[in-house]
Amino acid sequence: MRADLAAIYGEERLPRYTSYPTAPHFTAAIGRDTYARWLAELPVAASASLYLHVPFCREMCWYCGCHTQIVRRDELVAGYQRTLCSEIALTAEAIGHRLKVEHIHFGGGTPTIMAPDAFVELMATMRREFFVLPSAEIAVEIDPRTLTADMVEAMRLSGVNRASLGVQSFDPVVQRAINRVQSFAQTASVVEMLRGAGIEGINFDLIYGLPHQTMASCLETVRRSLALAPSRFSVFGYAHVPDFKKHQRMINESVLPDSLARHDQACAIANALKEAGYVQIGLDHFAQADDAMAVAFEQGTLRRNFQGYTTDRSEVLLGFGASAIGHLPQGYVQNEVQIGTYAQSIAAGRLATAKGYGLTDDDRLRADIIERIMCEFGADLGDICARHGAEAGAMLKAASRLKPLISDGVVRLDGERLAVAGDSRFLVRSVAAAFDAHLDPGRQLHSRAV
């Protein structure tokens, strides 16, 4: 990674491109009636992925950028679980046939805040309303500080085969600064419980750019994490957006690393993981060489969706829960963000769609280009444009943001083949942004490029 380029481009606020167009461009013009029509148009042969958002935690981590709230009363969580079951039934009814499902992902918040029997019931509801394939990947995000043995058993009984553990940092100074004190012993104990239940797919989430974080503390976190041998790592840069996430104001900005320090931390983590035998996947994932994600990366079939990099090839993602986002061939939909409003809609027998976006042909073309850049650090523009009935030359001519990236050596263009230089891959979001027709550089809605 070139530090000079980190200084030039690192302060840009850019999307992570888990969708295109990105969520800030969703509007209320797409509502529940449109979503119901899109669902009814899904072909019988389609396959889908399901995402369930559980927006509750026991305490707030100050770095958090998710839609979540603190809850002490278990009955609130139980009521929400019942609402999820009702929404699943409503959605299946709108589709009109039993859609096959290849992936299920529970995100949060803290999905394992549910009672174990409620989790089992929720999984049973999905299996009743959809045809969940025996080979389906079922993944759950976990806070190791609160996971119980009973919940692990419920996950085992429900067929969960992948777990993502929030680690972030094992540095106690950093942990106190972000209000997430989590010992190595707690994390190791959870990994042991999960593997004992036959849940072998273990992901660790790490973050760089946190308050008081240094390159040395990042490397120490990696060293300790490697002792537990997770199959995948997700390594994200902390996105400090206190204007949008008020609790982030609890973080002292004066002790946040600058772009160059963040660049050094990201480099150090990536190098350490690669030296340990992990394959770097796209912008921020690392996987053991025999992991399905590493195989997909090598075969050129890696995809990107709202959960980040994925092996999921489905063209349908159904989102359940408050603020959940779905993706269908026709476009994107997002549920009501406020839990009460979401629950009221479902209780009234209505889909809870609040906004969305209908895709144009140009959006689909650009989405394909951006996804290949994000997944493969390059794109065959001639091939992609031809499949969409477009001209690569016209697309390149319109991508004015690409010119300085080429001049600075970030991008190499060989005819109609684009490639991100090996020492500039940390700027892949900047390259993807060159093809974003909706990008407004003046809006500070996104995280820093580095």
Describe the fold and architecture:
The protein is of the alpha/beta class and 450 residues long. It has two domains: 23-358, tm_1862 like domain (pyruvate-formate lyase- activating enzyme), CATH 3.80.30.20; 361-448, Arc Repressor Mutant, subunit A (Orthogonal Bundle). It has 16 helices and 21 strands. The strands form six sheets. It has a nine-stranded mixed beta sheet, with helices on both faces. Strands 15-16-17 form a three-stranded antiparallel beta sheet, covered by helices on one side.
Q: Outline of this structure?
A:
The chain is an alpha/beta fold. It has helices at 3-9, 32-40, 74-95, 116-129, 149-157, 172-177, 184-196, 215-226, 259-275, 292-299, 339-347, 361-376, 381-387, 392-398, 402-407, 428-433, and strands at 13-14, 47-54, 56-57, 69-70, 100-108, 131-142, 162-168, 201-208, 232-237, 278-281, 285-288, 303-305, 308-310, 316-320, 325-328, 331-335, 353-358, 378-380, 411-414, 417-420, 447-448. The chain folds into two domains: 23-358, pyruvate-formate lyase- activating enzyme (Alpha-Beta Horseshoe), CATH 3.80.30; 361-448, Arc Repressor Mutant, subunit A.
Which bin fits the share of residues in helices?
Answer: 25-40%
Strand content: 15-25%
Number of domains: 2
Largest sheet entry: 9 strands, mixed
Shape: globular
Distance between the termini: 11 Å
Query: What structural class results from the helix and strand content?
Result: alpha/beta
Evaluate the radius of gyration.
21 Å
Order of strands across the main sheet: 10-11-9-8-7-6-5-2-14
Low-confidence stretches: none
